[in-house]
């Protein structure tokens, strides 16, 4: 039995995704700004979040929290490179 999402549920999910992405962008800009005044700040974040490997990481559709953190930090580095 397949249950399909209603239009309302899809709109709510889309709205939630946009809100999360907006928060992510704001945090990236704030952290990039902090890293400008304290260069080792980004290094400390990388040290904490980029060295972990979790169970399930080899699964095709699995993306772990640490992998998302690495992507997030990489986006901050790209923001810093643009300046």
Give a short overview.
The protein is an all-alpha fold and 83 residues long. The chain is built from three helices and no strands.
Write the layout of secondary structure elements.
Blueprint: H1 7-37, H2 40-49, H3 65-82
Task: Walk me through what this model shows.
It is a single chain. The protein is mainly α and about 80 residues long. It contains 3 helices and no strands. Helix 1 (about 5-35) packs across helix 3 (about 65-80) and helix 2 packs antiparallel against helix 3. The longest helix has about 30 residues, at about 5-35. The radius of gyration is 17 Å and the shape is elongated.
Task: Kindly list the characteristics that best describe this protein.
single chain; 83 residues; mainly alpha
* Low-pLDDT ranges: none
The mean pLDDT is 82
The arrangement of helices and strands along the chain is: HHH
Helix percent band: over 70%
Strand residue content: under 5%
């Amino acid at each position: 039995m397949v249950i399909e999402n209603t239009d309302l549920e899809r709109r709510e999910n889309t709205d939630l995704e946009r809100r999360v992405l907006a928060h992510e962008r704001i945090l990236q800009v704030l952290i990039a700004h902090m890293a400008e005044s304290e260069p080792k700040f980004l290094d400390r974040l990388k040290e904490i979040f980029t060295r972990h490997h979790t169970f399930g990481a080899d699964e095709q559709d699995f993306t772990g929290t640490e992998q998302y953190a690495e992507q997030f930090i990489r986006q901050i580095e790209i923001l810093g490179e643009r300046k």
